[in-house]
Amino acid sequence: MAGRKLFTNNTPHMLAVTLVIRASYDPRNVAGTKDFQLGPRESQWQEYGNDIDIYLNGIKVVAQAGESVIAHQDIVILRGSPLDDALNTRNGVDFDLANGQIVLSTRQVS
Questions:
Q1: Which of 25, 77, 87, 102 sits at a 20 to 30 Å CA gap from 31?
Q2: Where are the beta strands (DSSP E) in 1-110?
Q3: Which residues, at least 6 apart from 51, have a Cβ–Cβ distance to it below 8 Å?
Q4: CA separation (Å) from 84 to 7, 26, 51, 99?
């Protein structure tokens, strides 16, 4: 079964999201990416990877805010790190704005 997470955009901006999918268990290996759009205040379930490549190595997010662009990127470099655990042990990912920056948080969705 592929990986599956609920992504929630708590910002007033359209988000362009890129998921970086890990090949197997090692964060040094990338299996590819998945791109999708997430509207303001919108939630979407997204599937990514395949039966073997079910982990995320990172998330990239870009928003256009008026005449400027806001971008955020998190990339895992060490298996078992706090970021690795956040991206791969919870099935909800939330995007918020704080001080003009995109902030990512994770949670368990029932």
A1: 102
A2: 3-9, 15-22, 30-38, 43-48, 56-65, 68-75, 92-98, 101-107
A3: 1, 2
A4: 17, 11, 19, 25
Which pLDDT value is given to residue 110? 84
Mean pLDDT per 10-residue segment, the chain (110 residues): 95 97 94 97 97 96 93 96 96 96 95
CA distance 51 to 1: 4
For the question of whether the overall pTM of this predicted structure is more than 0.85, the answer is: yes
Q: What are phi and psi of 69, to 5 degrees?
A: -115, 135
CB 20 within 8 A of CB 59: yes
DSSP annotation of 82 reads: H
**Domains of the chain, with CATH numbers?**
3-107 (2.60.40)
The backbone torsions φ and ψ at residue 82, rounded to the nearest 5 degrees and listed phi first, read -55, -40
Interatomic CA distance for residues 75 and 88, integer angstroms: 12
